[in-house]
Design goal:
The protein is of the alpha+beta class. 24% of the residues lie in helices and 34% in strands. The protein has a 5-stranded mixed β-sheet with strand order 3-1-2-4-5. The longest helix has 16 residues. The chain starts with a strand and ends with a strand. The relative contact order is 0.23. Keywords: Lyase, Metal-binding, Queuosine biosynthesis, Zinc. Its EC number is 4.-.-.-. Its cofactor is Zn(2+).
Length: 118
């Protein structure tokens, strides 16, 4: 089974290693999708949605929301943001019955990245 929860955050960035309009400072309302793969545990759930929300808010959104992403991600492309999130959530969301399966970061309604680890 795949458990899914969606989140949103607003942040600014500029792509310093890119030459085009995105090298200028700009912002997005990002959509973040966190997916866990697993089997229902003792309570017949992969993970309580509220527990997942708490972990993502405390480990990710408190730092990313209304921030300048370049302060902590050298080249904050969607790819690098997804990897940064994965690296901070993987251990936090590993349980006996489940593990982090996929991170999706959407910069716009039509442009996003999926990351499943190395």
């Amino acid at each position: 089974m795949i458990l899914t929860r969606k989140f949103k955050f607003d942040a600014a960035h500029n792509l310093v290693e890119y030459h085009g309009k995105c090298e200028k400072l700009h912002g997005h309302t990002y959509k973040l999708v966190v997916k866990l793969e697993g089997k229902p545990g003792k309570e017949d759930m992969i993970m309580d949605f509220s527990e997942l929300k708490h972990v993502v808010e405390s480990k990710i959104l408190q730092q990313l929301d209304h921030s300048y992403l370049n302060d902590f991600i050298k080249q904050p492309s969607a790819e690098n943001i997804a990897k940064w999130i994965w690296d901070r959530l993987y251990d936090e969301l590993s349980r006996e019955n489940c593990r982090l399966y996929e991170i999706q970061v959407w910069e716009t309604e039509n442009c996003g990245i999926m990351y499943r680890g190395e």
